[in-house]
Amino acid sequence: SKAKVFEKGEATNVTFKDVAGLTEPKTEIQEIVEFLRNPQRYTDLGGKIPKGALLVGPPGTGKTLLAKAVAGEANVPFFSMSGSDFVEMFVGVGASRVRDLFRQAKEKAPCIVFIDEIDAVGRARGKNPNMGANDERENTLNQLLTEMDGFGSNSGVIILAATNRADILDKALLRAGRFDRQITVDLPELKDRVEIFNVHLRNIKKDDTVDVEVMARQTAGFSGADIANVCNEAALIAARNNKKTVDRDSFMSAIDRIICGLEHSSKIIS
Ligand code: ATP
Description:
Helix content is 49%, strand content 11%. The protein is α/β, with parallel strands linked by helices.
């Protein structure tokens, strides 16, 4: 889901319970929750708290959800921006927005700053020379690097960024003291898909013709977002057919629809 340009340091009620599967990423990111809850435990021993981590994985796998859950678990404000929002900005605007965001974040520390689609601003510099918009992207990236270097590692601001293309990122972003930790967020395996279905079926009035195991097996290659979509679509299909509950047939039609959509979009890309 697209982050708004700035979610202004809102509290979030998302927790790890809402994030199904992702066992490894949750374990890896747990340490950041601990830093935010109790920074002194680390700094007293002379440890430096990392500035951030990069969440890497395909679209819809729960990177935004996971970042929000870190803020929710630690009970700290969540700020966010999306890299793609900066691409079309007028000269100077991107950099000043980044400056603003970090100023606000520092005031509310400890907190999380989440940068979705960081590749849109963080692509390697000078690789894609297409007019002025590109200069502005570089200005924005430079400002981001400046901000990351500018606050001490114990400031309590932790930056999480998401991308599905870590390979195209400017190496400067990945240097020690910046995004030097990467967390891989992969497509869900069978048992993870069962869990994701269960999360999204919580509020669906399904009947006992529905078999979650079977649906999980039929949805290999689906992301968490696709599965969320299936559940919602199934409810809409059932309602359209004047059913009182969401039955197996509604889910099967929903799965078919999403598969068609996925095939269609991969044809467009390739
Ligand atoms: P993008 O790269 O497209 O921004 P993303 O990896 O940030 O995607 P999210 O925005 O976190 O993905 O996921 C979109 C929605 O899909 C979530 O709000 C949630 O409803 C559902 N979803 C994705 N992954 C999971 C998961 N592991 N557990 C439960 N729900 C999930």
